[in-house]
Write a structure and sequence with these properties.
The mean pLDDT is 93. The chain has eight helices and 23 strands. The longest helix is centred in the middle third of the chain and has 15 residues. It is 16% helix and 23% strand. Strands 1, 3, 4, 5, 8, 11 and 12 form a seven-stranded mixed sheet that branches. Strands 2, 6, 7, 15, 16 and 17 form a six-stranded mixed sheet that branches. It has 457 residues and is α+β, with helices and mostly antiparallel strands. Among the domains are: 206 residues, no CATH class; 60 residues, no CATH class. It comes from Actinophytocola algeriensis.
Length: 457
């Protein structure tokens, strides 16, 4: 059995900023296994824990099998290069506005490297250091990437006037390539692994709920538009239909819909299927559906086709209870779990990646193609390119998009523990200034029994 190639997974990993200097948790690696860090999503001093992205190596063998490679199997050197291009893309020709600490290489387990050294300089002001986080390797040789601390500032105290572009500001989100060189001990063979990409995004304040249309759904549809991927011929109720219904149901925990989306599982009855489908927005723009309850967004074409097949009784009745996390971690599971926890509802501009002037994450030219549809092409992108069109500072859009744009990462209405009372999630940070200074005091929506409540401590 010969190794023919090595790949890094997840192909796109998601880290998130937080102001806790030491505590963090690993982002989703399996479907149906949302993060649940010990002690919650804030540390003992109520500082937001960062979400880390963990990367693994997988060997592809000539007999078609795929196995993970760890520090027990190979000598591994990881390289990460993140940057923040937000200010430079908004000020063409301006010097000193690219926050780029350079590449960091970590060889062997138990290593640590900080993304320090990146600086920004606005005309008329002194240069400012902007740390973008750090990378570590664990005892098994996996790479763990942590982003910045949620910092945003204006050296000249410029006002924030809109949700997207604010001159004189910087923040510490970032993105960039993740690569690895390894020597397999058993054979002495050396490989340059096919690399991944890491995106450092804002916090997700309802981390145990997923959006109705996820970034995975969006990129799957993108792949289908290029004939790289295709939807299921006959949808599975458990694996294709239930996830859409469940996400619609749980999203009510962060909106003002209450129990509007409620139904017993499995939904097999013809009348219930017709009634629910009749409320869906048609991605072709036909009809007057109101689901999903978002300001801008409808199911992808593949999602809509899945639900139409369900309505028409052309699906597999395979319900045996709620899906459980897979026992075995696979490259595909890692790829999907990371993206399924992100927003795909609308990229206007989005939360983790997107943009209005441009959306590199949604450009098929930026992907490897049919051989690996969810993997970004390193020859097409530079560090910082995926997030360069995102809001500056990131907190500005969390003020502007408070009405059902993307209510999972940025909740609208939240339930208080022990009551049915719903309050505005942003009740203590309603303007741009307050959000940039008090974002870390806002609550996380977490599961308690059969419901989701806001926890602030």
């Amino acid at each position: 059995m010969t190794i023919t190639a090595v790949t890094v997974h997840p192909a796109i990993g998601i880290a998130r900023v937080g102001n806790s200097p030491d505590e963090f948790f690993i982002g989703p690696e399996r479907l149906w296994a949302p993060p649940d860090p010990v002690g919650g999503f804030k540390d003992a001093r109520s500082r937001v824990k960062r979400q880390a992205a963990r990367f693994r190596l997988y060997a592809h063998h000539d007999d078609g099998t795929v196995t993970e490679l760890t520090a027990a199997d190979a000598d591994i050197a990881w390289t990460v290069h993140v940057a923040n291009r937000k200010a430079i893309i908004r000020n063409p020709g301006a010097e000193g506005m690219l926050i780029d600490p350079g590449a960091r290489t970590l060889a062997g387990p138990g290593q640590r490297a900080t993304f320090d050294g990146g600086k920004i300089r606005f005309p008329g002001h002194s240069e400012v250091d902007v740390p973008l986080g750090e990378a570590r390797t664990d005892e098994d040789g996996h790479l763990v990437v942590l982003g910045g601390f949620g910092t945003s500032a204006s050296p000249g105290n410029a006002p924030i006037t809109n949700f997207l572009d604010n001159e004189g500001w910087f923040d510490d989100v970032s993105d960039g390539p993740v690569t690895a060189h390894l020597t397999v001990r058993a054979s002495g063979e050396e490989f340059d692994a096919t690399g991944a990409w890491v995106i450092v995004a804002p916090p997700k304040f309802a981390p145990q709920i997923d959006s109705v249309i996820t970034l995975y759904d969006l990129l799957f549809q993108l792949g289908a538009s290029q004939a790289w991927l295709s939807g299921p011929a006959t949808p599975s109720y458990t694996h294709d239909i239930h996830p859409i219904l469940e996400r619609a149901r749980t999203t009510s925990a962060v909106t003002n819909t209450g129990s509007a989306h409620a139904w017993p599982e499995p939904v097999y009855a013809p009348e219930a299927r017709r009634r629910i489908f009749g409320r869906l927005r048609d991605p072709a723009g036909r009809g007057r559906g109101t689901m999903p309850l978002l300001v801008a967004g409808e199911l992808t074409g593949i999602q809509y086709a899945v639900m139409k097949a369900w309505r028409d009784d052309d699906f597999v009745r395979d319900w045996a209870g709620p899906p459980v996390p897979s026992a075995r971690l696979t490259p595909g599971e890692l790829d999907r779990a990371a993206l399924a926890a992100c927003v795909g509802d609308t990229l206007f501009p989005g939360v983790e990646a997107g943009g209005i002037l441009g959306a590199p994450i949604a450009d098929p030219l930026n992907y490897v193609g049919a051989a690996d549809p969810m993997r970004l092409d390193h020859t097409r992108l530079v560090p910082g390119a995926v997030t360069e069109f995102m809001p500056l500072p990131w907190q500005a859009d969390y003020v502007h998009c408070g009405h059902e744009w993307w209510p999972v990462p940025r909740p609208n209405k939240v339930v208080q523990p022990g009551t049915n009372a719903r309050l505005d999630w942003d009740r203590d940070a309603r303007d741009f200034v307050a959000m940039t200074t008090a974002w870390h005091t806002l609550g996380f929506v977490v599961r308690r029994g059969n419901t989701y409540v806001e926890v602030r401590g």
